[in-house]
Amino acid sequence: MDKIRNFCIIAHIDHGKSTIADRMMELTGTVSEREMHSQLLDSMELEREKGITIKLAPVTMHWKGYTLNLIDTPGHVDFSYEVSRSLQAVETAVLVVDATQGIQAQTLANVYLALEQDLTIIPVINKIDLPAADVPKVTAQIVNLLGCKPEDIIKASGKTGQNVDKILDAVIALGPKPRIVLGHGVGPARLHGRTAPSTSVATSGDPQTDLGFRFHPTRALIFDSYFDDYRGVVLYVRVFEGEIKKNAEILMMAVGKKGLALEVGVLTPKMTPRDSLKAGEIGYIVTNLKTTREAKVGDTVTLAKGATVREVTNNDLADSKTTDEGKHYEIVKADGTILEPLPGYKNVLPFVYAGFFPVSNDQYKELKEAIEKLSLSDSALQYEPENSPVLGFGLRIGFLGLLHMDIIRERLEREFGLDLIVTNPSTNYEVLMSNGEVREIKSASDLPDVSEVAEIREPWVKGEIILPKSMIGGALDLINKKRGHQTSLSYIETKAVIDFEAPMANLLTDFYDQLKSVTSGYASFNYELNGYRAEDLVRVDFLVAGHKMDALAVMCHRSEADAIGREVTKKLKEVIPRQNYEVALQAAIGARIIARETIGAYRKDVTVKIHTGDRDRKAKLLEKQKRGKARMKRFGKVDIPSEAFTVMLKRD
């Protein structure tokens, strides 16, 4: 274990993490020159097309007699949960900062995550080969942030490979060897007359003899996983204690499921089978598990030999793990001791909800199966069935942001061949009923009768914007327009950091686009949930030809309702096709209409066949046409295209 180093690369989006990872793999000979291409670890077609990392990717390299396990992480705020999972599997974080842009919002967010995990941080300035690089200024920013010395910062270029070898040397010299989490492994049962300690103990000796008693659990943390159509569930794990051998019977502690390790190995970056994975190593396990619910990210893998799974009652939950289904399990070893799971991941709560409906109801089952497969490797993805009178059967899915939603939609369409209608995204609300009950609703259409509602609470976020000092005014004005308010203003060298609070719903649609616009693209933005607050919120319904469309309903502040009603009815007028009869588009709060637009009817000239000037005949035909249009209006059905359900995505 002295010769193993586990590290990850963290940075703001587009600061060059994946390019530095490419140079590391070239330098260490992990990938041959013939196989090398840019962003090698970004294996997903969408990642290569958009030029961003979406999924974390582990790879094992060898350098100067050491085994280096690298995890490349995403940079976008919507995928920060991928970063937090990676940090728990490593001991060192390489912090990459762009020499032309300096410290950005996600740089700060990732530094805070790394400090929480008590990781060793190695600062790197990337892209020093660019003409616009300002190394002294960025060096001062990093020194100000981390309190390190200027000579501790490595100046490198992922594009040319300059000084990438120094990063690898620094990981070996400064990075600690893999930690063992001993002491957490046993519950309160007494061993040889002693109670096992409940805190983590750093040890360097044999775990069989440490702490004065025999201690030999095998525990590995699942930090990522995916479903392979041919091989079943594949787990990416960090082994903290013990050893997992090929064909060993394994046990998932949170769900109490047993399986087989059909193959174990490391990623280089392709799968390279080994006989076993030992403590301190990062690798993969191919299992015989067939369903996505049997292996959750954040679960602990142990050996099934000599272990008994016992479901416990609610009175005895100190050493158990709660599953999604509400069942509780504890793992009892042969000597009667209780094996505790590793500290997993806190559940990531989605902020954004949208309805996903297949264009053809025949594809509903395929949609559900596809989302189940994606949710295995995406712990932030939550879903539940939804039924709409207009759109039929579908799923209401929770996301961490609009980019997250867009990526999932594209993956469903590309990888699974689904044709989808996506409804307006919304956030979740807490509703306090008159009888004191608190309900959570995930869309405006779920709002109970207003006569039974005491108050509605909406989620607020704590945000952080980093931008040049000269552009503060435009950003503050935008925050105020979104019903937000600034809480503090600080400076890092030539940049300003604005901390603010604002309602989540107002940041959902186009806040980031507008921020980029008012700051000429120089601002970066990061946010996190900051609780729920009671506000004067109303539900705005939209009616098409007198029929209420639940899928179009939105929640908003009363002061914004009129403007949103007028705006959305205008947009609907553009996307809903004309009919042979007049169609009214209305926005309403309860029974009160607050906005209206009218789609004019197609008008066929029924008098064209009359070649005389007989006014009575013309009037007779026009009256007949009028009656026909009235009948169509009464029984006709307006075909609403899928674009109508996404008009709220871009309000401006």
What does this protein structure show overall?
With 652 residues, the chain is α+β, with helices and mostly antiparallel strands. It has 5 domains: 4-174, P-loop containing nucleotide triphosphate hydrolases (Rossmann fold, 3-Layer(aba) Sandwich), CATH 3.40.50; 190-339, Beta Barrel (Elongation Factor Tu (Ef-tu), domain 3); 352-423, Alpha-Beta Plaits (2-Layer Sandwich); 430-535, Alpha-Beta Plaits (2-Layer Sandwich), CATH 3.30.70.240; 538-646, Alpha-Beta Plaits (2-Layer Sandwich). The chain has 13 helices and 37 strands. The strands form 8 sheets. The chain has a 6-stranded mixed sheet with strand order 2-3-1-4-5-6, with helices on both faces. The chain has a 6-stranded antiparallel β-barrel with strand order 9-10-16-13-12-17. Strands 27, 28, 29, 30, 31 and 32 form a 6-stranded antiparallel sheet that branches. The protein is globular, with a radius of gyration of 29 Å. Residues 182-215 and 314-325 have low confidence and may be disordered.
